[in-house]
Specification:
The complex is a heterodimer.
Chain A lengths: L1 H22 L1 H37 L3 H26 L3 H18 L1 H14 L2
Helix pairs in contact in A: 1-2, 2-3, 3-4
Chain B lengths: L3 H22 L3 H34 L2
Helix pairs in contact in B: 1-2
The chains are: A mainly alpha, B mainly alpha.
């Protein structure tokens, strides 16, 4: 049912953008931003249940929890930076979009350093 | 967080476009520029409020 809401918002904002783009192109960016935010807020309600499920599973299997925390942070960063990158690409500013992308990649790498070091230790222990 | 915000922004955009044309026809280009800027600032404040709510929800969910 929610997919109909998402498609409806997308199509309505598409039509509004086409109308406004002829007269005032500045407002077209605002309409696309607002429709992006509306759709993302619909999606976020679903994400909370998925994250609760992940946490319950990780508690049961007793993987050390900070890895799950890091993974959640990385998905959050990817989620937000993809939102900004697509808005910048839409308005034609691919330079800014690539800067945001590079920034988010570097932040994700710095966040995942503990995981990588842990993995290397495990590998070193395995090797004879 | 509902859809009438979308229509509100579209309405402001069209209104500013019409006002711009009317003022330009009336020979007052500077006031036309002022109304356009005012419309952009109003819509910007509304959009920034929505963006901050989105960022706060994402921050709380992914505990960034």
């Amino acid at each position: 049912m929610d997919i109909i809401k998402i498609i409806g918002i997308g199509l309505v904002s598409l039509i509004l953008i086409i109308i406004i783009k002829q007269y005032k192109p500045e407002f077209a960016i605002y309409v696309s931003l607002i429709s992006g935010i509306l759709i993302l807020s619909l999606i976020i309600d679903k994400l909370t249940s998925v994250i609760a499920l992940l946490e319950s599973i990780s508690n049961k299997v007793s993987i050390n929890n900070n890895f799950l925390g890091i993974l959640l942070k990385i998905t959050g960063i990817a989620f937000l930076s993809e939102f900004a990158v697509s808005i910048c690409n839409d308005s034609g500013e691919s330079a800014i979009a690539s800067k945001i992308e590079i920034g988010s990649k570097i932040i994700i790498i710095t966040l995942s350093i503990p995981i990588i070091s842990n993995l290397l230790e495990i590998i070193i222990n395995i090797l004879p | 967080m509902n859809i009438d915000l979308l229509f509100k922004i579209a309405a402001i955009g069209i209104l500013v476009a019409v006002l711009h044309q009317v003022l330009v026809r009336a020979g007052r280009e500077d006031q036309a520029m002022m109304t356009t800027l005012a419309g952009i600032v109003i819509v910007l404040t509304m959009v920034i409020k929505e963006i901050s709510t989105l960022f706060n929800t994402v921050r709380t969910i992914f505990n960034l």
